[in-house]
């Protein structure tokens, strides 16, 4: 299907803001609370910031207590079956509260809600849900919410609103209530054109569409002015940023543009696709002092046969060459990856190829997953020759290797001095957490007043998951 990039008009964005003001006026001055429960990836967290922005404009404050919330929004993830099951469990559990408080409004949105089958299931079996809309409808949440308020509580068969379209727009000018004051998500694009055979994202997030670099740079600048020090550029495949957008920068160019903004801040990005990670990108990373020397480059499998079945568009050798080039060009590069174990047709030999390649590359950390079929994707109907026990055994061996690699790399950091950004407080002996330029987690002792500050730290210890240091 041909895809034409379309932008939301300024008038349409303004109309949504007006609807928020109207809802606020209709609901009146009393206290009201909303809870936004987010599942899945950083893109969903970023979308939840827009949902909270809209709700705040409608006069809602936020709570973490479901019982207290007048509105519960569940922003869902369809990437893994486990997350989907949790969503259904948690939404089902809201029924008891709804019986006691029928005025409570339950909203289910995000990637799951984009699927017609899931919407049908929710309509039939989860009557607790009042409003259900897909990812493409996010920008018009106020209009859908207003419609829900109108039909909510109608006598008899209580009204409910279910909406999803295939029309994915690039939307600017939406309100946003951000989490925290130190780290910020900055969405640069949405959707994906790659159709990896196991992945549901292209079906629930639509085709790839980039925001204009001027808009992104303006948002980055406002974040820096507001005091944010760690900005993560988000997209399903950031390396293909700008593709199909006439006269636009590519991703390396975008990094350089944001790097030129005045201020002491770091630029991170995720996720990269190995087939689109280029020497030009690595050079930009090396030359831009604010760009973190961190590359999350999902390998998924080290077997060419499986990579082909996954439709990943690279071979084990081309992947390895890219990591070698990146290491050569970017001093102190931290490499992390994702691996899927037990993809349909994966043999012991294929698995050993993966294990060997990960050990050759040497990762700071690996996010390892057992393959989970997603209905609607090509791979979902493929036979898996390996038993559950075999797959679990492969997973355990990979995890052991991943932990050993991480522990060795972390051990080699001991004695070094790193510049870190203190970004969280902890309970226990190490009261602060921080991130190095490459994104390594460093636990520290210190006062909560240091939150959001840069610090030089001497690394005094390590384990598989983190470094430990002292502020100097
Ligand atoms: S690149 Fe592949 S795995 Fe990543 S979002 Fe696109 S289809 Fe999914």
Q: Can you characterise this structure?
A:
It is a single chain. This protein has 472 residues and is an alpha/beta fold. It folds into 4 domains: 6-169, Rossmann fold (3-Layer(aba) Sandwich), CATH 3.40.50.12160; 180-292, Transcription Regulator spoIIAA, CATH 3.30.750.210; 293-412, Transcription Regulator spoIIAA (2-Layer Sandwich), CATH 3.30.750; 417-471, Nucleic acid-binding proteins (OB fold (Dihydrolipoamide Acetyltransferase, E2P), Beta Barrel), CATH 2.40.50. It is 37% helix and 21% strand. It has 14 helices and 21 strands. The strands form 6 sheets. Strands 3-2-4-5-6-7 form a 6-stranded parallel beta sheet, sandwiched between helices. It has a 5-stranded mixed barrel with strand order 17-18-19-21-20. It has a 3-stranded parallel beta sheet with strand order 9-12-13, with helices on both faces. Strand 12 (230-234), helix 9 and strand 13 form a beta-alpha-beta unit. The protein binds iron/sulfur cluster (SF4). Iron/sulfur cluster binds next to helix 7.
């Amino acid at each position: 299907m041909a895809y034409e990039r379309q932008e939301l008009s300024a008038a349409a964005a303004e109309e949504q803001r007006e609807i928020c003001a109207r809802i606020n006026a209709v609901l009146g001055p009393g206290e009201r609370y909303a809870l936004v429960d987010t599942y899945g990836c950083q893109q969903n967290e970023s979308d939840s910031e827009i949902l909270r922005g809209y709700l705040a404009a409608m006069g809602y404050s936020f709570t973490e207590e479901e019982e207290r919330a007048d509105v519960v929004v569940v922003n869902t993830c369809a990437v893994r079956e486990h997350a989907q099951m949790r969503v259904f469990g948690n939404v089902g559990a809201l029924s008891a509260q709804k019986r006691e408080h029928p005025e409570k409004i339950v909203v289910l949105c995000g990637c799951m809600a984009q699927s017609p089958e899931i919407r049908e299931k929710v309509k039939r079996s989860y009557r607790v849900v009042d409003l259900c809309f897909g990812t493409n409808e996010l920008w018009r949440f106020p209009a859908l919410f207003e419609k829900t308020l109108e039909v909510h509580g109608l006598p008899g068969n209580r009204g409910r609103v279910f909406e999803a379209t295939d029309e994915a727009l690039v939307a600017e000018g939406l309100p946003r209530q951000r989490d925290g004051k130190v780290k910020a998500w900055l969405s640069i694009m949405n959707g994906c054109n790659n159709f990896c055979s196991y992945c549901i994202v292209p079906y629930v997030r639509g085709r790839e569409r980039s925001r204009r670099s001027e808009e992104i740079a303006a948002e980055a600048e406002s974040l820096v002015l507001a005091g944010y020090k760690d900005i993560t550029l988000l997209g399903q495949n950031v390396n293909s940023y700008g593709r199909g957008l006439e006269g636009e920068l590519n991703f390396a160019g975008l990094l350089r543009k944001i790097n030129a903004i005045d201020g002491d801040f770091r630029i991170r990005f995720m996720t990269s696709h190995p087939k689109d990670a280029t020497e030009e990108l690595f050079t930009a990373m090396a030359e831009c002092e604010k760009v973190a020397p961190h590359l999350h480059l999902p390998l998924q499998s080290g077997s060419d046969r499986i990579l082909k079945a996954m439709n990943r568009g690279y071979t084990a050798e081309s992947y390895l060459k890219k990591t070698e080039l990146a290491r050569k060009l970017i001093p102190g590069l931290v490499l992390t990856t994702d691996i899927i174990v037990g993809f349909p047709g994966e043999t012991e030999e294929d698995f050993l190829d993966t294990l060997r390649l990960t050990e050759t590359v040497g990762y700071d950390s690996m996010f390892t997953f057992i393959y989970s079929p997603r209905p609607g994707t090509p791979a979902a109907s493929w036979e898996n020759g390996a038993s559950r026990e075999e797959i679990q055994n492969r997973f355990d061996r990979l995890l052991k290797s991943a932990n050993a690699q991480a522990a060795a790399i972390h051990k080699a950091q001991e004695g070094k001095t790193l510049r870190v950004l203190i970004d969280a407080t902890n309970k226990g002996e190490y009261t602060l957490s921080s991130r190095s330029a490459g994104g390594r987690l460093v636990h520290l002792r210190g006062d909560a007043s240091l939150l959001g500050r840069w610090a030089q730290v001497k690394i005094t210890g390590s384990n598989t998951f983190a470094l430990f240091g002292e502020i100097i």
